[in-house]
Amino acid sequence: MFVKYLKCNRCGREYRLESKPVLCENNDLGRLDIIYDYEKLGKAFSIENLEKRPFNMWRYMEFLPVPSQEYVVSLGEGGTPLLKSTRLAEALGLRNLYLKDETRNPTGSFKDRAMSVSVSMAKFFGFKKATIASSGNAAASLAAYGAKAGIDVFAFVPDFAGYGKIAQLLYYGAKVFKVRWTEAEDPTVKMMRLVVEKYGFYPSPSFGVYNPYQIEGPKTISMEIIEQLGWRTPDQVFVPTGAGSLLTGVYNGFRDFNAVGLINKYPKMVAVQPEGNYPLVRAWLEKQDPLNIKPWEKPPETIATGLEDTFPWDGDAALKAMYATNGYGVVVTDDEIVQAMKLLASLEGVFAEPSGAAGLAGLIKALNEGLVDKDETVVVLVTGHGLKDPDIIRKTAGDAPLINPSLEELEKASEKYYKIRM
């Protein structure tokens, strides 16, 4: 275990992992950033040892905060394919386009990486009850890993969450509470915080302010990308962005590999947000102070329900990552997201939900604005499966034409079929 200490990103207070910290005791909504001993880590980790391990996210165990294998709660997350795009790349005029297909994770989204680490730490800490505020994917993932670990999950979801996502939660045995969203501030987070404060439940949303451990899981995405590219670093990575946690985690993976000398540069980190809710991209456009990002002023309006965080909880780290890598932000419309979904499915056979396809929508817009060179190596994160959001899919896919053949026509078709078979 190579964690040196945890440090609050706001007040600077330090904590030892042995004290089992989750929230900063100063109640300043600071995230407890995990500081690793890279000198020891670099000596313990080697590519030769890596080649002997199964291809899943726990092959990078040294870079994760879980003290030992006995606490790991896994459903086989990670090890997702990095697909070299052919037809889509040709349509866009790109030579080196890759899709990191996170739809292959156990519950259908990248959140499984986050919740595997989070629940593993809950097991180490001895918690029996966990709570989450989520639009669906993170809650479903926590419920699945909670079921595996024997931890009760209490999930607060917005009132407009699709029934498909709620049904998944219920099947996993979670206690689900729909919360009406009538103002800009996320009411599910309010409820989660009340439960944590009153009952001492383990908070496990997919943002670092309330859980510093889950943010470590997604950094294995970038570690896999580097390995799958033959230990080369891509030029740009497009990340669907809500709270900023995924972008932060992916950046941290590149940071860790740089720190131990496995790579020597960073890709541009590109945040993609929907037109109906883009506080982080707005912060980048306005060059806001990372610790004083303005929240979105009204309830979110987008089909990308996984990107509805009106306040980017990990926006400080995400914004710093964008600044440090010469990255940038892109805002996309719902129509552009739907078009990206259709392109992914029809040209590459990858079925993504709206939030999952937002990264591709961002790439297309960036291409049109001259922000991507056609010879660059570009990776787009596809973060969630289309079946995760069936209500939205039904509204955007359209209907197949209805035909009513006569009995005579069916008989003729049947006769022709049997002749071919014989």
Automatic annotation (TrEMBL):
Known cofactor(s): pyridoxal 5'-phosphate
List residues of the Tryptophan synthase beta chain-like PALP domain. 73-384
- List of residues binding pyridoxal 5'-phosphate: 137, 383
**Keywords for this protein:** Amino-acid biosynthesis, Lyase, Pyridoxal phosphate, Threonine biosynthesis
> Which GO BP annotation is one of this protein's?
L-threonine catabolic process
Q: Which molecular function term from Gene Ontology is one that the record holds?
A: threonine deaminase activity
- InterPro entries from the UniProt entry: Ser/Thr_Dehydratase (IPR050147), Ser/Thr_deHydtase_PyrdxlP-BS (IPR000634), Thr_synthase-like (IPR004450), Thr_Synthase_bac/arc (IPR026260), TrpB-like_PALP (IPR001926), TrpB-like_PALP_sf (IPR036052)
Q: Does Translocase show up as a keyword for this record?
A: no
Q: Positions modified as N6-(pyridoxal phosphate)lysine?
A: 111
Enzyme kind, highest EC tier = lyase
Which PROSITE patterns does the UniProt record give?
DEHYDRATASE_SER_THR
Pathway linked to the protein? Amino-acid biosynthesis; L-threonine biosynthesis; L-threonine from L-aspartate: step 5/5
- Catalytic reaction(s) noted: O-phospho-L-homoserine + H2O = L-threonine + phosphate
Question: Which PANTHER family does the entry link to?
Answer: L-THREONINE DEHYDRATASE CATABOLIC TDCB, THREONINE DEHYDRATASE, MITOCHONDRIAL-RELATED
Q: What is this protein called?
A: Threonine synthase
Q: Which organism is it from?
A: Thermosphaera chiliense
Organism phylogeny: Archaea, Thermoproteota, Thermoprotei, Desulfurococcales, Desulfurococcaceae
